[in-house]
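Revision sheet: structure tokens.
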Amino acid sequence: MICILFCVLFVDAQNTELRKSIAEPPAIGLALSGGGAKAFAQIGVIKVLEEAGFDVKYVTGSSLGAVVGGLYAMGYSIYDIERMALAEDWQFLLNDDISRKYLNASEKRMGEQSFLTLPIKRYGIGMPAGLMSGQQYNQFLSRVSIPVSNIYNFNQLYRQFSCRATDLYTGNSVELKQGSLALAMRASTAVPTIFAPLKYHDMYLVDGGIFNNYPVEDCKNMGADVVIGINTKTHLYHKKDLYNIVNILMQSVYFNAESQDDANTLLADFNIEPDLDAYSNSDFEKVAEIIKIGEQYARDILPELLAWAKQANVKLSPKTKKQQFNQFPEIHTLYVDTIMVQGNKDVSTKYIIDNLYIKVGKPLSLKNLDKRISYLYGKQLFSAIYYHFEFLKDNKIAIVIEVHETDLLNFDFGAHYNDYSKTAILLRLSRRNMKLWFAKGLLNVSLALGRASKFKADYVVDNGWLPGYGITFSSFDQYGYTYSSKGIKENKFDLAVFKFKGYTIFGVSNVLRLMAGACIEAHIIRRNISFSNFNKVNNSGFNLYSELVFDNYNRKYFPTSGRRLSVRFEYGEGDSYTADEKVNVTGGNKTNFYHYNSLELNYSNVWTFIKRLSVEPSVYYRYIWSQKSLPIVKSPFFGGANQTYLEYYHPFYGYHYQAILADNPLLVGCNLHYNVYDKHYLSVGSQLLLPNDDWIKQWHDSQKYYNWKFTYTYNSFVGPLSIAVAKAYPNNKLFFYLNLSYWF
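Predicted:
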């Protein structure tokens, strides 16, 4: 009887399992590995899986596989994910370059002078936590995850999801299953020393691929009955490949993950590993190729995959060529009921909210929010800015802004070489958010050392379209020459200038700036003078000025779009040596009083007509009303190929520095820039100079100067490295020029 009962129960259990297996086919999970840019091959593979009818319920990912997986789990169609991958500029997203349009005038100038910035911490000069904070990448992840802001547990996404990261505090691999999806994806992709670690709850997270680059086991633990794994990892380098710091770093970081990857490979029910050996982790400019390779590889193995699916009793959904819609509505505007700011200590909450233009109860454009965060980040008070939305009770919405304040005191270093100043170095201390009197601003103290030396200290409070102000003290020295009528050098002299100025400033969107101020200055012209010889000052002057500047160049060096316009009016007076430059140089002591008005116009524009080829026309004009000859610091000079510290000096290729003295000059020029490859440029340019205001007479009397130049430049991380050859007429001599790095 017992035996019969046992047999009945056994058969019933078998039938139950059989019915269950028939009614509930295996749930499919998808495990996505890291691999940098190679992880984009997963998009091509998933396209084929969808077309074949594989209905994925669970997704896990690590490193960049966490981003592909996170977007897919949210409910984005794989075709939208592909469009995103192809449309984004990944080289820009994955670095810390701030678009010029998000920088105010002071930050633009600072960023275009130095190539190394180190934070100054309590115990001295420190090192950053990573080469990049990845702000553009942070904003991208925040932007694309807005539709699921109301979801805290990742198992409530359209497809259940988790991703891997590594906690630096404990040294453990951690599975992220709840919280902000954008932050989880960001943490999983934080490659050590490249990206700064992410503070997430009570953890300090970096790339998940360090310990678990292929989270198959996580997928099974979530509930997947069968797991399809897509492994796009970079295999460990061979001996012959360990020759540079990048490969050595990657080998060191991912060594621990190798054995775990092998174990997860055995756990996967079906492994897909496209052949990506021809690509590196950093080949983000080849995203389209990599996606196609993943898609083609999946099509090649599709018969094998379908055979496995049939054997594993995997039910395939009706085939579809294209999922037309994402699994959530598009959101363009939200009404915010609460604003929460977290992580700020030195920067006030009011300052952050005011700069983001967020108003409670008012419509908030998500496109504008992204722009305003870029503007706020451009003030360089924060190393990272994150945001997400939370849905509260009573259908209310809160926006949460989380900021990580940067080191406000920094040391900047720059160096350059050119034919005029030879070798020079820049040392600068900058302190942001520094309070003087009743406002907080940017303090800079810099020292440039070389044949032309300069000390400068300035403090500026830039309030955007509201009134701001600044004060500056500077002193510099540089050498010059006097020339005969035939252009032969006659005398060498040293010029030292001391200035103190105060001004008020208004700005609009960091593009338009209006400035008005006053300046007191003094100078010395004689031999063997430096910018520290205050006791020898014997020339003084005073001026009032106003200036309007419009600048929306996308880059200072080799821009591809934008225009720049400056209009400056100046009234000044003072006393100086007689205007005869030889008397000035030889130390004559006759002085006279001068006063002047001047109007200065400077305009340039850039168009890119065809890919890689840009044209940049320019015009400069200055008109001076004066009854007396002006001192050298106020006179317009031309010549040479490099900038100097004189305000009214302009380069003119094919002549020596300061060889041409003008009265009311008109300078017209045009440059063609061709981007040969990556950061290599060839430029061809020409200039026409009419030194006085009677242009028609000068043209007919041959009182004009014109030139041509040809330049090769490599736009390196330390600044432009260029070699130029030029010739000017009527000088009719060939000149060669060498310039290394930024001018400061």
